[in-house]
Amino acid sequence: MVEWNLVQLPQIEIAAIDNGLAFPFKHPDSWRAYPYHWAWLAQAKVPFSQEIRELVLPQLSDMNFVQDLCDDLYVLFKVSSLDDLYVLFKVSSQDDLYVLFKVSSQDDLYVLFSSQDDLYVLFKQDKGFDRHLFEKQMSVMRGQILNLTQALKDGRSPVQLVQMPAVIVER
Fold first, then answer.
1. Which parts of the sequence belong to the PI3K/PI4K catalytic domain (predicted)?
2. What is the DSSP string of 1-12?
């Protein structure tokens, strides 16, 4: 028998944002407050760490990586059913482990994937998917990646990053 008072329960962090905010199809027409006012936090003024720069810069500087990322997002955005609720949990910050759950109408929870192939099977049939809108979203994201790459190279902070001019990079 397990003594539950001796077991350390995992910490699960949940965040949600809709596709339109996470992947906008255009830059905002004017400056707006960021969710949770993160830009006003003291930490936002601290330049990105050397560890983050060394981890992220090589990948973002590789245009093949950026295109593969866009291709993967294309697969992810083709959701199978808008009537179902899907929840993505970050299970472990150390291992960067994510798990996607489907909540059924019977309030049951199903683990749906552990691999990209499983995701593809799940997400490939959204009837509302718009390829043209997706390409606009990716153009904005490529511009954001370009700005992030430059900010990391220059040793800038997150606040300085969001103050950079908006860029659109079309394929």
1. 1-171
2. ---GGGSPPPP-
Sheet with 109-111: strands ordered across: 85-92, 97-103, 109-111
Report the distance separating Cα 122 and Cα 112, nearest Å.
8
For residue range 84-102, what is the model confidence (pLDDT) as tens digits?
555 555 444 444 444 555 5
Q: How far apart are CA 66 and CA 47, in angstroms?
A: 23
- Mark residue 28 as left, alpha or beta (left: phi above 0; alpha: psi -120 to 50; beta: remaining): beta
Q: Domain segments of the chain: what residues?
A: 42-78+129-171, 79-126
* pLDDT tens figures, 101-137: 555 444 444 444 444 444 444 445 556 667 787 788 8
Q: How far apart are CA 14 and CA 10, in angstroms?
A: 13
Q: Shortest CA distance to 31 belongs to which of 133, 154, 165, 157?
A: 165
Question: CA 64 to CA 70: how far, in whole Å?
Answer: 10
Query: Which residue do the tokens 């691999």 mark?
Result: 115
**C-alpha span between 121 and 96 (Å, rounded):** 22
